Structure formats: C-alpha cells, structure tokens
Amino acid sequence: MKGPLFYSKILLFGEYGIIKDSKGLSIPYNFFKGALKTSKNLSEIAKKSNESLRAFAVYLEKMQLENPELVSFDFESLKKDVANGMYFDSSIPQGYGVGSSGALVAAIYDKYAVEKITVLENLTREKLLTLKAIFGAMESFFHGKSSGLDPLNSYLSLPILINSKDNIESTSIPSQNLEGTGAVFLLDSGIIGETAPMVQIFMEQMKQDGFRNMLKDQFIKHTDACVEDFISGNMKSLFGNLKQLSNVVLDNFKPMIPAEFHKLWKNGIETNDYYLKLCGSGGGGYILGFTQDINKAKKALQGYNLEVVYNF
C-alpha cells in the first residue's frame, strides 16, 4: 500500500502576522514530499512514525467527539492500518518550517475523512475555510495551535493567498524565469527549530503595547506590501519592502533568529546582496532569503547550504 504524495510548503510571507490578520502567501514546495506506507518490518524511524500515528488516531477520535459537525473519519480503517504497520514515509525535514506535520495531516484527511472536500471541486471560499478549520484542529495535535494553512497547502498543492483570517483563496503567482538572476532561496541553519516554544515567545511579546504597535504599523504593513508586490510581479517595489521587513524582523524577532545568523542577517541589509526573513516560526530550520542576484548572494553566503526554490 502506498498513498498519494503530499508536498512540503513554504510560507513566503505572513509568518506570525497571519495570527493577527496580516496577508500571507504560501506556495507548495515539491522538493520534499511524504506518503502513507505500510510495512511488516519497520525501521526505527518508521516505528516512531507508526507510534505517532497511533497517538494521532486517539487524538482525532477525541476531536471528532468534541466537534462532530466539523469532520468525521473512518476510524476502523485508520486503526486497522496503524495496527498493520502504517507510517508516514517522508523526506520533509522536521522542525525546518516547511510543513512536515502539514503533509501528514493532509495525507490522513485524504485517506480517512468521510465525505471529504476534494481538490476537483469548485473550491469556494466557504470550502477553503472549512478545510482550513478542519486542518487547524487536526494539526493542533503537533503544534499546540495551528492555523491549518500548512496542511491546506499540502492538500491542494496550490499557492494560497491569505487576505485575512476569514478570507483565503487559491491564487496564481508569476511563472518562474529559470534564466533570471533573481531568486527566493532557503538557507539551512543546521539547527532543528520547534514551533511551540517560538509561538509561546510571540504570544508573550504580544502582551506589550510597543510590540503590538510595531506588529501593526511595521511588520504587517511591509508583509502586506510584499505579498501584493510578489503576486503582481512588481520586483522593484518588492525588494524595497523586503529590506524594510528584514530590518523589522531583525530588530523585533531576535529570539526567533539563531544567534549565529544575526550578523549574516544584518550584512544582507547593509550590502543589499540578499535579504533574510523567517521561514515558518523560526528558532532554527530554514531561513528564507530573497536576492536580485543569486551569484552575489551565493558568494556572500559562501560556506552555507543554499537551496534555490524560485527564480525570477
């Protein structure tokens, strides 16, 4: 048995801001993927995944009891498959901000949800919000609190534009120009990040007036502008807004940036060779980078592991 593939995602813009109604833009990233598989002889990693699925099934039963209107699952099949050695075979790195739990949630919904909403339907805003709510409740098992966006992206495999909490739509982004020198890239911090503690820090900071004002007047303002620029392909304006956003993040989200990257972050802003921003919740994993000249960025970031995800 081998399930369909579910891909990782990259939240290009909107990390933390979408909690407070900023715009966001999330795109599928097909380099990493995962699928449900079953085996009688499980490796150590597969065994861990199988145990996690067993606990997840218990959580989903409780979730369905508490909110029967939201979604229902075929638990008989799910439990039988878990007992037979089902696991999630995934190349998506965990704790890297590219949606490892999101892909798993999407795979479980796809296989076991009764009367599921499918990608082939006319995806109205209503259906997208329903899916997002279902996925948010499911993914909370892994993160404590989830927006449901990662699994939504993985499930639909389409770019998703978040206009606000209650207004999301699938969108198109400018097609890649593989000859272009402009690029979005992932920078490997070499550290595994954990979402829950980072979200905790953010929620604590939100109790301060100064931080809340900064979020509204600077962070969300620049994030919204970046989303609009990126979708409309206005690269000149995009890089102006990215520089501002990178600055705001360096000044106000230091705990989410691994210490050894503070200097590198600042260097990008000062030289304009590249601009860095958080990828997901930060604290490790990948850092997202944007550059108008990938060769300059590679030279400036020599010795670091760099993965281009989009060319323009």
Automatic annotation (TrEMBL):
Q: Which InterPro entries match?
A: GHMP_kinase_C_sf, GHMP_kinase_N_dom, HddA/FKP, Ribosomal_Su5_D2-typ_SF, Ribsml_uS5_D2-typ_fold_subgr
Q: Which organism was this protein described from?
A: Sediminicola luteus
| SUPFAM superfamilies according to UniProt | GHMP Kinase, C-terminal domain, Ribosomal protein S5 domain 2-like
What terms describe the molecular function in GO for this protein?
kinase activity
Residue ranges of the TM segments: none
Q: Which domain of life is it from?
A: Bacteria
What is the protein's given name? Mevalonate kinase
Report keywords, A-Z: ATP-binding, Kinase, Nucleotide-binding, Transferase
Recite the lineage of the species. Answer: Bacteria, Pseudomonadati, Bacteroidota, Flavobacteriia, Flavobacteriales
| Tagged with keyword RNA-binding | no
What are the GHMP kinase N-terminal domain coordinates in residue numbering?
Answer: 86-150
* A Pfam entry, by short name: GHMP_kinases_N
